[in-house]
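Blackboard transcription, Thursday session:
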Amino acid sequence: MTDKNKPKGGKSGPDAPRGADEVDPIIGEAVGSRLKNLFDDFASEAVPDRFFDLIDQLEKKEPDTSSSKEQNAPDGADKGSES
Amino acid sequence: MAASQEVREGLVKAIPHLRAFAMSLSGRSALADDLVQETLTKAWAKADSYQDGTNLMAWLFTILRNEFYSHLRKRKREVEDVDGAEAAQLVSAPGQLPNLEMGDFRDALSQLPEDQREAIVLVGASGFSYEEAASIMGCAVGTVKSRLSRARTRLTEIMDGEA
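(Written on the board underneath:)
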């Protein structure tokens, strides 16, 4: 358990060190595993459509990256010289 | 433009995590989703202040927790008038519980002070490092650790029936 350097491939049994998923030593297994279950449970709930709608709406508004205003020169023609 | 595209994709991917964080913090689905909505809106508006390549998730979580605290401050003033009616709702979160034990744990979590709950969710469930959690919460790493430690002690007590 304490040997963190031991490479563990793929398998993540309940007792295996699991990298990022490893139980935090301060929090401990009893609390940590319940906490993760609860969080994963929340995170696996279906995302309500309102959020996708929101993102679509937001996308229609320009974000404040207005420093790069559209520099429209769609045609490669030399516009500077009007004949 | 590249940054905002990255933000957009990041936002979509982050939604389930943001919702889980919001629900862990607030324990109320309706409030949680409002917090997420506010977070997404603010994040989009501030997309230019997001530094390309930095931790987008941490940035989003920071926005969300700030929303949560500003909501609490607002609520606190209202609750003082309504005599704890709102506080009672905060604890009894409705929703489908996978089983009784999980419901108990959720209840236990909701009894922690916000700062401890936040710390333990960030590190124990969202997978942030102590340093990232400290940056999100705007406190020192040592403070994160002591909050974690107190949260663990308190949760253990509650689960052992000393609540």
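Lecturer's comment: Helices of chain B lie at 2-26, 29-45, 56-82, 85-91, 100-110, 114-124, 130-137, 141-162.
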